[in-house]
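Can't paste images in this forum, so I'm doing it all in text. The chain is below; anyone willing to post the predicted structure tokens underneath?
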Amino acid sequence: MEFARRFPWISVRFYDPTEDPIDQVGDLTAGADLVIVPEFNEPDIVGAVGFMRTRRKDFLLLFHDAHHPFSVVYPVWQSCRFLLAVRRS
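Text version of the structure:
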């Protein structure tokens, strides 16, 4: 993936849509300082991330709207679904 190649210090984590979203989000966001959720994620994943943030309060949560002009700079965000978790060093 182009994003991971350009930013190797950032951990990009993917979810499995066939598994329980709450359990996955708990694992995917463990130890993250920042989680960015693009609008292309399924509603249950977006809800699970919001739920986990409210429950744990240990990471900053940002929702990315790809229709915003900023998305022109990072078109890779428009081509995939992912959770981006930046690990504490």
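The first helix runs from residue 2 to 6. The chain has three helices and four strands.
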